Each structure stands twice: as C-alpha cells, then as structure tokens.
Amino acid sequence: MESQSYFKALIIILIALIGSTQAQLQLGFYAKSCPKAEKIILKYVVEHIRNAPSLAAALIRMHFHDCFVNGCDGSVLVNSTQGNQAEKDSPPNLTLRGFGFIDTIKSVVEAECPGVVSCADILALTARDSVHSIGGPYWNVPTGRRDGVISKAEEALLSLPAPFHNLTTLLTLFGNVGLDVNDLVLLSGAQTIGVSHCSSIATRLYNFTGKGDTDPTLDNEYAKNLKTFKCKNINDNTTLIEMDPGSRNTFDLGYFKQVVKRRGLFQSDAALLESSTTRAIIARQLQSTQGFFAEFAKSMEKMGRINVKTGTEGEIRKQCARVNS
Ligand code: HEM
C-alpha cells in the first residue's frame, strides 16, 4: 500500500517536471523581463497608424504569412543573403508591406530592453494593435514566441494559400497548420481591409481557361467594371484595387457581403461559397458585427499559436531582418 502511494507521488512529480520544461505562450510573458514592451509597441502603433491606417491591413497579412510558414517565428521578416533566398522574396510575399514599420518598432523596444523581446512577438502584437486601432476587433496575444533561424522562399510557396486555390486546397493548407474550416472563413474576413494588385486577379479577369475569358463565378457586372475602370489589361502589375470597395480601412462585414454577392476578388474568395458549411459560416457572420469580431478574435489567437518556438528554441533576434550570427 505504502509503495503504491510512493509511486503515485513520484508519477505526479514527474508529470509536473515535464510540464514545467515545456514552455508555453503566456499573457504578459515580458511582465518581468521588459515590463514596458507591450506599452511601447501600442504607443508607437497608435501614434503612427493614425497617419497610415492602410498599414493595419499589411501587418495582419504579414502576421498570417509568418505563421503559415515555419510557425509564428518571425521568419517572414528575414532578408535574403548570398546563399539563401528568404521567405520575403517568395512570390506570395512580394506584395507584403510594412517591414520597415516592424524593424523600427524592434529598434525602439531594443533600446528599452536589448535582446529580450522576439520579432515574432513584436509582429503578433503590432498586427493586433494596428487592427484594433482602426476600430477592428481585439484579440489576446499571449507572448513568449522565439525567433526562427530558418527562412526559405520555397517553403513559403508550398505553405501559403494562393488566390487561385479552390476550397479543397485551402482546407488542406489551413489543416496543415491546425486550422479548420471555421478558421478559414473567419480569417478570410480580414480581407475586409486592404488592397490587392491587379496582377492577383489578371488571369481570373482576362484568361481564366486560357481562352481570353473571365471566371464565370465572378459577378458579371463587377467583372466588367473592374476591367473598364481598374485593371484595364492583363499585364497591369501596379494598379491597386480595394478588396472591400469604399471601406478599405474599416474592419467590418464588407468582405463577406462582397463574397455572397459573388464580388470577392479571388477564386479563393469565391471558393467560400462552394460548400454549405462555408456558406453557413458566412451567413452566421452576416448576422452581427459583434459576433464576427468575437469569433474572429478566437481564430486569430489560434493562428498566433501555430508551431511557435518557446523556451530555449530559436533565438531572440537583435534585428528582425537578420538572424543573429
Ligand atoms: C484563405 C486564403 C487567402 C488567400 C488565397 C489570400 C490571398 C491574398 C492576396 C492574393 C492578396 C492581395 C495581394 C496583392 O496583390 O497585393 C491578399 C491581400 C490581403 N490579405 Fe489575404 N489571402 C488569404 C487569407 C488571408 C488571411 C487569413 C488574412 C489575415 C488573417 C488575410 C489578410 C489579407 C489582407 C489584410 C490583405 C490586404 C493587404 C494589403 O493591403 O497590403 N488574407 N490576400
């Protein structure tokens, strides 16, 4: 009897020990090591997004592109070097904006606490604070992510969804990082802010099946409009179009309203009408902005946890654009 309880106690201690070595993200991870970090980031964001609200879209997209490739580890922020083409230079990332914004915030945080706060956390917090400061939803960002030391362009190409993907491919790519159909629809709703280049929809508008045609799932009137006034030819790589016309800096239900009218810009937007499950998730969002914000916050927090490096993994980069030597 006595030896039995001895073993029970031993097992409990062992489980506790294993648990304590598996570091996890936690709210306020820097409360002791750099107590002002989160405030510094918020202050910088609030002061600067006011004059450049379109950056909120760029930053949430950057966080998403970071998390889908090697986990949320700041790998998207790293510059290419002579022997390595980094994620930043992969086709899906060539339209990312706002790297300088993150680099500057990092240098402000470094001045307060050198070598403490990771670039991955700075990106996650900046994305949240910038979206919230334009009136969008607020979500929890537990911290403690460490920065990765690997950033490869080809991995970005394999892991990131593309505008021409169908529902099956989108679900596979989201599934690969532990996100489900609900997360796919909710997170796509972020595209209620921001802009796209005409190049991202050129094939859909001008050469859908290789015969000079337009994707029939795109609303005919809208397609005509885009071709006449915005993306006037297939080779236009510079013109920008609003994802949610008229409210590109307002985080609202505009994206879902566009999608149900068959006016989502990409095939990946139209794909969300392919199944009754995704249609039902959209219909639910359209009932209330508050409900959308609450569900969106849950999916964002989940996305922010994708394959994070914690504890002694990775490093705390000194500059976000280069791994420490
Ligand atoms: C479901 C798969 C997705 C695909 C295929 C996709 C694809 C794209 C593409 C092609 C663009 C336009 C790029 C350009 O031409 O400049 C874009 C923009 C954008 N995406 Fe997505 N996206 C997806 C999901 C998401 C998610 C999950 C988020 C955030 C949580 C997001 C946030 C944004 C934002 C905010 C923009 C505007 C960026 C800006 O203004 O610079 N997207 N997306």
From TrEMBL:
Annotated Ca(2+) 1 binding sites: 66, 69, 71, 73, 75, 87
GO molecular function: heme binding; lactoperoxidase activity; metal ion binding; peroxidase activity
Keyword Transmembrane helix in annotation: no
Coiled coil (UniProt feature): none
InterPro entries, sorted: Haem_peroxidase, Haem_peroxidase_sf, Peroxidase_pln, Peroxidases_AS, Secretory_peroxidase
Cofactor binding notes: Binds 2 calcium ions per subunit.
Gene3D superfamilies attached to this UniProt entry: 1.10.520.10, Peroxidase, domain 2
Catalytic residues in the record: 65
Positions of the Plant heme peroxidase family profile domain: 24-324
SS bond list: 34-113, 67-72, 119-320, 198-231
Keywords (A to Z) from UniProt: Calcium, Disulfide bond, Glycoprotein, Heme, Hydrogen peroxide, Iron, Metal-binding, Oxidoreductase, Peroxidase, Secreted, Signal
Extent of the signal sequence: 1-23
E.C. number(s) listed in UniProt: 1.11.1.7
Biological processes annotated in GO: hydrogen peroxide catabolic process; response to oxidative stress; response to stress
Main function: Removal of H(2)O(2), oxidation of toxic reductants, biosynthesis and degradation of lignin, suberization, auxin catabolism, response to environmental stresses such as wounding, pathogen attack and oxidative stress. These functions might be dependent on each isozyme/isoform in each plant tissue.
Name used for this protein in its record: Peroxidase
